[in-house]
Specification:
With 220 residues, the protein is α+β, with helices and mostly antiparallel strands. The protein has two domains: 88 residues, Phosphorylase Kinase, domain 1 (2-Layer Sandwich); 126 residues, Transferase(Phosphotransferase) domain 1 (Transferase(Phosphotransferase), domain 1, Orthogonal Bundle), CATH 1.10.510. It contains seven helices and ten strands. The protein binds adenosine-5'-triphosphate and magnesium ion.
């Protein structure tokens, strides 16, 4: 991390070492935070890689700021460092929905809540782009979404339908003991209401999701 921000960052343990990113927990001015470092992909040309990395980091930080401004449950951006390909953000105190579903500490109700949260995200004009159970975290005060590197602002209907399809595939592949988990998500999506939400829009997204599943089934 660069100059000023680094001096008040106290680095702790690595909590995730993935193909794309390393995530390190620590404290920033006494606040629980995580540093997400994007690692270079060696198979890509370095210039292209740098450009893609910057794009994803900028997209992620822009969306985190936007989400904080509307009170959406997601990490708050602390600092974006394009030079070192890292984002510093607040830490969500909890476990991934993946782990919680595996251990039985989360179930149908949490999937219903996740559906409501996805509707809220879509109504804010944002699609997630990688909605797996690893990218949702369960904390004391409910579900939070993380990992917005593939998110879009002003998404097309297809991108919103695909959020549900990605989750559907994840639930079927990794959480098949929960029968029809995606139906809980869809119920939550359709039933979530807030002041200016339109149930018509929600139905159109669910219809698109059903079309995508048919398409996938037909083409294998
Ligand atoms: N703000 C956060 N608070 C708590 N844990 C986090 C936070 N951000 C990330 N993590 C943890 O680190 C993991 C990886 O983070 P993230 O999903 O943002 O990276 P990624 O782009 O999926 O990385 P890769 O593709 O390399 O797996 C998450 O699944 C979660 O366990
Ligand atoms: Mg992730």
């Amino acid at each position: 991390m660069d100059g000023g921000a680094k001096s008040i960052w106290h680095e702790g343990q690595i909590i995730h070492e993935g193909a794309e990113a390393t995530v390190i927990e620590g404290k920033w001015m006494g606040k629980k935070a995580v540093l997400k470092l994007r690692r270079p992909r060696s198979y890509r040309h370095p210039d292209l890689d740098r450009r893609l990395t910057r794009q994803r980091l900028s997209a992620e930080s822009r969306i985190l700021s936007r989400l904080s401004s509307i009170g959406f449950p997601s990490p708050h951006l602390i600092h974006l460092d394009l030079k070192n390909a890292s984002i510093l953000m607040t830490r969500i105190d909890g476990a991934t929905l993946y782990d919680q579903l595996k251990s039985g500490d989360a179930g149908a109700q949490d999937l219903f809540d996740l559906g409501g949260l996805l509707r809220r995200l879509h109504e804010a004009g944002i699609s997630h782009g990688d909605l797996t159970t690893h990218n949702a975290m369960v904390s004391e005060n409910g579900i939070h979404l993380i990992d917005f590197g593939l998110s879009r602002q002003s998404p097309e209907l297809e991108h919103m339908g695909l959020d549900l399809q990605v989750l559907n595939e994840c639930l079927r592949a990794s959480h098949s003991t929960i029968i029809d988990g995606i139906e809980q998500v869809c119920e939550g999506y359709l039933n979530y209401e807030q002041n200016n939400s339109h149930s018509e829009g929600a139905e159109i997204v669910i219809q698109r999701f059903r079309k995508i599943t048919e398409r996938v089934r037909y083409h294998g």
